Amino acid sequence: MKEGIHPGYREVVFVDLSNDFSFVTRSTVSTKETIKWKDGKDYPLYKLDTSSESHPFYTGTQKMMDTAGRVEKFRQKFGAKTGSGAAKS
Fold first, then answer.
1. What is the 3-class SS of the chain, one letter each residue?
2. From 19, 51, 62, 77, which residue has the greatest number of CB atoms within 10 Å?
């Protein structure tokens, strides 16, 4: 690889602010803060609003919308009338 054109790829601590879940992974994200991790080393810190530990889709707390009910309401309000005018000659 050429020197000076690639971003730094290093271990970074990501912290989910909504539930204090944190993990270490490798990333090129730029940070200004550092944190002392469980192994005693200092790592760059990146704060997240949502992670897989707090996102409703991954935690199973996602609300399912009643799409069938919404479709039926639309059809009742704006739907075409069946068996009228178009079939007659």
1. CCCCCCCCCEEEEEEECCCCEEEEEEECCCCCEEEECCCCCEEEEEEECCCCCCCHHHHCCCCCCCHHHHHHHHHHHHCCCCCCCCCCC
2. 51
Whole-prediction pTM: 0.57
Q: Cβ contacts of residue 14 below 8 Å, gap of 6+?
A: 22, 23, 24, 25, 27, 46, 47, 48, 51
Tokens encoding 85: 């005018």
Tens digits of residue pLDDT in 13-29:
998 888 888 889 999 99
Distance in angstroms (rounded) separating the CA atoms of residues 53 and 19: 8
**pLDDT less than 70: residues of the chain:** 1, 52, 54-68, 80-89
Measured between alpha carbons, how far is 23 from 10 in angstroms, rounded to an integer? 14
